[in-house]
Specification:
Elements (H helix, E strand, L loop, with lengths): L1 E6 L11 E9 L8 E10 L2 E5 L16 E3 L10 E7 L2 E8 L1 E4 L8 E4 L8 E4 L6
Length: 133
Amino acid sequence: MTLALVPNPPERIDQAYPVVANGTLKIWLRAVKESFDSVGACLKKDSALSCEGSLSAAEADSCKSKEDGVRECRIDFNDSGSFKLEGKPGGMLVTVIKQLELVHAPYDGGPFLYLSPTNAENHAFLLKAAKCP
């Protein structure tokens, strides 16, 4: 998993919708070459950031299942979920807040990866800081 945060300049932060950064979350699964991605607007909430999941342009059929995992269908066309970012002594804690949809580039079709806040195995990840070149 990787996370990239791009802060918005102070003059671009609107008081009505104070997006302080844009976050790109990428997840790779074993035996899958391409990453599953979500790009979301992040708002400051207490000492953390709350980031919306990105809505892909993919027009896939709706799923009947709401379970986690890789699917060729979309759970909900209008809701891509959200995740929270919190700085911790060991790095950045990424926590799924609302079932999160992630999709392969170029984002015009599946498969889709879903992560749920109720699944203890894949709802929180501690990422260690990496130095950029």
